[in-house]
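Risk register update: the risk that structure generation would not scale has been downgraded. Supporting records follow, first protein first.
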Amino acid sequence: RRTFLQGLSVGALGALAGCNTPTATAAARPVPALPAFGSVPDEAFWGAVRAQYPLRDHPVYLNTGGLGPAPQSVLDAVFNTMTRLQEHSETGHELFTPARKAMARFLGVQPREVCFTRNATEGNSIIAAGLALAPGDEVIFESHAHPGGSFPWANQQKVRGITVKVFDPDHTSPEANVAAIRALITPRTKVIQVSHITCTTGLVFPVRAIADLAAERGIWFHIDGAQSVGMIPVNFTRIGCDSYAFSGHKWLGGPHESGVLYIRRDRLDAVAATGIGAHSGALEYLPGELLLDDGAARHEYGTRNAGLIAGLTEAVRFQEAIGRERIAAHGQAMAGHLLEELSRIPGITVLTPRPAEMRGSMTTITHARVKAGRLFSYLWDKHGLRCRPVTEQGLQAVR
């Protein structure tokens, strides 16, 4: 993303600026009720879903992997909660408990295993900084990791002298990726991390199989789920990972600067609290003994924006109203149709895996004659499509 603006044309830059033009603040936008699925034709149902969003029709927004639009009900939950709390100047910290229960149910875990963060990057950073790693200990992750997933480990390489080992994602089969990880494991390997779904090509890793591999070797398994929760149904208990971080403001459609970190309950004490303050625990008198919260909430501290947590809870409710399996199937069907049609265009190469079990709702392409910035600008200027340049690992692609 660092090179994003370098490839933009003047027209695209102007369009970006135009999108930021201030407009008069309006009251909450009324939206039609969401019909029950099956009560109307499918096209009408998905049209009603689209009507829940204040997102404009131009440009056509195709960058949920970067920043997901939020439905009006989420925005209302954020605004109304913040306004109500301001009427008495209260923090609303008591709202975290019911929100934690709702999120835990959504993820198939216990409330004490859930911590609210600002984004996936913060969750990844808590794990990287909190695990007891020594110089020479090895961490394995894929070469297509987002900066929010790779930078925390690169920093620990500088700070603590750990060893980072990467493998290239294999688009041929899930088993090939498990084999690539297995080949890198040594007695010094302490952590394996993968993106549940890569931000580059949309490859879906076989996380259950990787969890089994890590458990067999006594290796911590962490998942960067920035691109998965909200795109596909997830159940962290069934996956079997030790920890999992995701952003609420992508596929889940939550408010900006919202996220979740899951730490398995029997692994909570293995992650030191590197950021701490009020609400992380209790310390009755000074000096005295600090007693940390008995759950992942020990990694939450200080005054927080309870409106964002209310919005994230509403995002969960909205997804469940549509149907999580239905969302995943609809997204994969549209992306699959796009993949097939783009494959027919001379000069286009589709980087997204072909097997259905290895892809979700993203499609990434390259063009033989142009780099990512120019292709992005062409799609914006000529067709009004808001995509995302993919320049990681020299891919020169558009997602």
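Supporting record for the second protein:
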Amino acid sequence: MGISKLFAEMIVREHIFRPMTGEVLVVGRQTVALEPREARSFMRGLGVVPPASGALEVDVDTRHSDGSTISDRAFFGLLGLGALKSLDVSDYEKADIIHDLSAPLPEHLLGTADIIVDGATLDNVFNPAQALISLAGMLRPAGRLFLYNIGSNHNCPYTILTPLWFYDYFVGNGFPRVLVYASVRSNLGRNVFVVAPQNVSYLTPNIRSEFETTLLVLAERGAASSYEQTPIQHQYRPSDADARHRQNIELTLGTRAEDLVRSDCPQFLDAPPGYKFVPSE
């Protein structure tokens, strides 16, 4: 599991939009793609003023770290977040909570986190739907869930997920703020698209590309949000369920902040209806 620089940018930009507080839960200890010498300048470049002094903890716990990058605790500490726990299927990376996300969530873990960060777990579990339901169930009201997973057959995913799979779940459960991005990388650079299905009258298809696609999601739980509802794909959705779904989409309109994930080159991919291209500025 890990926090790439792109995922880190998303988290930092959300913190700038509305500062995060409370308890952070990472799903698996996160290998952060920032070295100590660059971490503070990275934050300042995005508009965050991190603590100016003090050595940053180096990652010696995650299997992908070579000892040159900062720990997940150090990353969130630069954002002023000190309370961090980790959940994993075993304690091989010193997880605080041991639970298999393919199984239903124990009741004592419901509503226990303010911020949850998944750096590529859902594409590596057998039952990603149950895992997503469990992650949403662990959020407290007003809690925010950050997800980063592969959306194409690159880097050996166990399951390939789609933007609408995420979007429909969170909208169907009445989350008032839902942002689902697809980042497509070629030799020209990165194109980013955000799901915007309210702009189409029927089905929002998947983005098809030969290039590696990464999905990044921010979902904020509201006071009245549920987490147990499972969505029905658009073309099979009964009319009454479709009406409720459209009403829930209306709840999300007007809540979007400045886009958290952005392209770094001109548009090279034509996305289908239901997606909006996000330029660099």
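The chain has a mean pLDDT of 91. On this basis the risk owner (M.S.) recommends closing the item.
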